[in-house]
Amino acid sequence: MPRLFTGLEIPPDIGAELALYRGGLLGARWADPANYHLTLRFIGDVDHGVARDIASMLAEERPRASLRITIDALSTFGGARPRALLARVAPTPELTRLQADHERLMRRVGLDPETRKYTPHVTLARLRDVSPGDVAGFIAMRGHFPKLSFTAERVVLFSARESVGGGPYLVEAAYPLGIGAGQDGPRDTLQRSFAEHRLA
Fold this sequence. Notes:
Elements: E1 3-9, H1 12-19, E2 28-30, E3 37-45, H2 48-60, E4 67-77, E5 84-89, H3 93-108, E6 121-127, H4 132-141, E7 148-152, E8 154-160, E9 169-176, H5 186-198
Antiparallel strand pairs: 1-3, 1-8, 2-6, 4-5, 4-7, 5-6, 8-9
Helix pairs in contact: 2-5
């Protein structure tokens, strides 16, 4: 039973910049830079039939333009009990619409609505028993966070190993961005490969 989510890949050069923040925070379990990503919609554990339906619907989505993504700050999730250190992604109308479209698709296949507000980010570390003061100090010591920007050229359907958080993540299918991209080529080929082989 695959555990799936949709998202955007982080280019290696941006990942290398983010990896410079690894270390120096006791209690942090740092994500491997190879597993950095921007989640669009967490799907979870689904049966193979649902997974194939999701892959098919993503392949049939209308073409859309590539996305400009900007990472602009360090932040945390968890408030008084921080549970994750993250690199914040600046929301844009285009990113918001893409995420909303994925939410709509997942409801069409019968998934429960996502009740949490969407906060685009890249998880750098998962935290356990780390005080808010230590996290605040860690962020303050890093000083000014330089904005990191890139253009996302495709949407990815990822799978994660069951019961293992933080990766490794596998690309199960990819759907090119850019108006008209992949309508008769890579989009269909990747989707068929995913449906026929990985989820057979």
